[in-house]
């Protein structure tokens, strides 16, 4: 972990503490303590179980996809991948550090770079598709409520949906209309030439074309693994379901037993979509504000609303950061280290013979 990433991690923790203090500044400490004591531990443990299942099921997906092409990959190494992803998603703008971090962990675990990229690509495509499907359903159920409570900010929900929809459509176009997509991208990028040097522009074009070609090659492999992809889709559905249910169980823990599970889950899906378009790592500030604005009609007690928001952020954001740090410093399994040495030996041998 670089010095810059360590600083970013510390800043995000400090910012989280500051936001929590600001949200609870007008609440008497004794009232907050009383609400904490009154929490139903069973429902809170179920909420904790949901986020752990979210991490666990992503580990299962990673294990299935990588193990399919690398029999030496272990489940112990698969567990590290989503946790390190959570760490770097949480400390980089727009969660941009998650994908490279996963690739690093897989290569560190002795997985060939090409196989690792292919597995991560499959996981990413399925995950994006499930997010769009879930969000579309949630939009139908809860958008009128969000419009009523959040007004103009509700259009961030639509904007977030548009971005995710654009991503999945772009991926599908590369998979099924490779030549057309490549030509279309090359036409769209031409105006960039007006603002940068020729060398920079042509490097950018070559990089984009290479990424499109690589994605297409990997997508061809995906097309021949139908049964595996169906399994990944089903597991991803349950993975996201457990994540989206967390606020519902937090509300039950705080005594709001009449909460509508479908509406609360749908509203959480919309909040997650709003967070995804905030440039600040972890959507800090925007996440807390969105949660309070949307759930204040359900949680009418001010102290419990702040407590629910803090518990939600601990489970869905800060727990991932903490576990991610441990996963990052954890050494790969002995089997993985052996595979890595073999790969290194092959690459040195290939280089020496060329």
TrEMBL record:
Top-level division of the source organism's lineage: Bacteria
Species of origin: Fructilactobacillus fructivorans
Entry's localization field: Cell membrane
Keywords tagged on the record: Antibiotic resistance, Cell membrane, Lipid metabolism, Membrane, Transferase, Transmembrane, Transmembrane helix
Protein name: Phosphatidylglycerol lysyltransferase
Enzyme Commission identifier(s): 2.3.2.3
Function: Catalyzes the transfer of a lysyl group from L-lysyl-tRNA(Lys) to membrane-bound phosphatidylglycerol (PG), which produces lysylphosphatidylglycerol (LPG), a major component of the bacterial membrane with a positive net charge. LPG synthesis contributes to bacterial virulence as it is involved in the resistance mechanism against cationic antimicrobial peptides (CAMP) produces by the host's immune system (defensins, cathelicidins) and by the competing microorganisms.
GO terms for MF: phosphatidylglycerol lysyltransferase activity
UniProt GO cellular component terms: plasma membrane
Membrane topology recorded in Swiss-Prot or TrEMBL: Multi-pass membrane protein
GO BP terms: lipid metabolic process; response to antibiotic
InterPro entries: L-PG_synthase/AglD (IPR022791)
Reaction(s) catalysed (UniProt annotation): L-lysyl-tRNA(Lys) + a 1,2-diacyl-sn-glycero-3-phospho-(1'-sn-glycerol) = a 1,2-diacyl-sn-glycero-3-phospho-1'-(3'-O-L-lysyl)-sn-glycerol + tRNA(Lys)
Family: Belongs to the LPG synthase family.
Membrane-spanning parts: 7-24, 44-66, 124-147, 153-177, 228-250, 262-284, 305-330
